[in-house]
Amino acid sequence: MGGHALILGLTGGYCAGKSSAAAALHEAGWTVIDVDALGHAALERSAPEVARLLGPGALKADGAPDRRAIGAMVFADPVLLARYEAIVHPAMNALVEEAVSRAGPRACVDAAILYRLPIVAACDTIIEARAPLALRLIRGRARDGLGALAMLGRIRSQRPLRDAGKAWKGKTVVVWNALGEDGFKRRVVGLAERAFRSLAADLGAVDREPAPGA
Description:
globular, 5-stranded parallel beta sheet, 214 residues, 9 helices, Rossmann fold
């Protein structure tokens, strides 16, 4: 399979299990590209422009971006969110493309906002983690210490992502995370490995086809 490579997209809403899926894929040998981490790197580079947009409250005392404060501001205002993303996303997209090019045969692009990124078009398969709302709220409370209204606000802000995902329905597999984390992880890894083997088999068949006129 040496030259065969697959780009797997991994996405999911707030506290639906995307991070657990990414951890399982990493343990299974996939190169997981954490777009959130790359977004942090892009934000560091864009801190002066972000501060001009959002005001001094977007920065900590040492001048570093205050991600919690920025999130509170932009998630509450769709127009402001769009202006913020117009500053940070070009740098982030460049970092994502660079990371994918170095990833090797099993690349997983882990991104909550995958459906809005240019890299989505290059994904061979997309796994979308979903979970019941009540379970997501329980997880969010335990993980982030947020109240129900704050969590529901984050979930509502992600609705446009679900709409954008309809354009990629043909290569998206939804995996529900409701009955236990171990089973969820096994399903995610199993789907990813089957997609990789399928792509390798398809490319191998093409490699074996005789050249036209041979």
